[in-house]
């Protein structure tokens, strides 16, 4: 009996923990708290983080917490600030062409903002973070973007030259669940590495991105329906849990890259690899993730889930998901039938 109750208790504990976090799959708090916004600035700081949020998230989205973690690791508000890449971040549920218009604006604006900041603050080092649609945009900013995604065509934008400002000032960039990405790249972390996203990058875009491979991590989970199309079973939860899973290692890496870039530390850190983390952690996350699949499936009848990637693609791979443009996962109530369901399943 004890043995069967254990995973159930673990799940409840996991959900309770998840709900206190603004960067968790749910509830959708989205990290625009005073504590996090304290780092938002366009003033010159030694390090400036450009935050490219996911679809339909209010600024700065789930990335806000990781941004604060990174900035506090670098030395606090005197040393590090952030600005949002200004763009609509609209999902396809707003219309067929909306995603492409949105992402295209993000790529152009992000490059312009980084250029303007570097002109104003030539000694500052830049860090770029992007999640979901924002992950695709961040990769577009670095390597160039554009082309067919979902049912629309995104305008082309050129790569940012890595040998001159602002490209040369980029000391670390991390994307999570990027909607447009290519398989088999040496900057990818995670088992989604063997799959393309909703669209692959063109050879020119990949060449542009590879020029940043030393400073780039592209996180992609197996089963993420946005960044690893065809990895089955597809599960929206693994698109939303990057920050529960990887904040610590990403923070450590970005902070160490920052310190290596200004000579505070000698030598660059090695890149994190998911397979090097302990198997017990991996096993636990599989249990959680499987449990959450059931949760989302069971609650989809009553809850409207906001999927920061793309609504239509999620519908394609898993009909039970109901994604709303402005909706959000209803915080607590929908978990109740799911917990009951899981209790039946496990006990
Ligand atoms: C921020 O991330 C850290 C590290 O993963 C976590 O411990 C903390 O609970 C998160 N805070 C919020 C508000 O999400
Ligand atoms: C955070 O975002 C929500 C949703 O857009 C908004 O209602 C709220 O006013 C924002 N809070 C702050 C402090 O900006
Ligand atoms: C990734 O591969 C490219 C060649 O395809 C190489 O130029 C680059 O140095 C590699 N980067 C890393 C970080 O291994």
From TrEMBL:
SMART domains on file: Cutinase (SM01110)
SUPFAM superfamilies tied to this protein: alpha/beta-Hydrolases
KW Iron-sulfur (keyword) present: no
Record Pfam families: Cutinase
Record bears the keyword S-adenosyl-L-methionine: no
InterPro entries in UniProt: AB_hydrolase_fold, Cutinase/axe
Gene Ontology MF, one: carboxylic ester hydrolase activity
Signal peptide stretch: 1-18
Keyword line: Disulfide bond, Hydrolase, Signal
The protein's name in its UniProt record: Alpha/beta-hydrolase
Organism name: Decorospora gaudefroyi
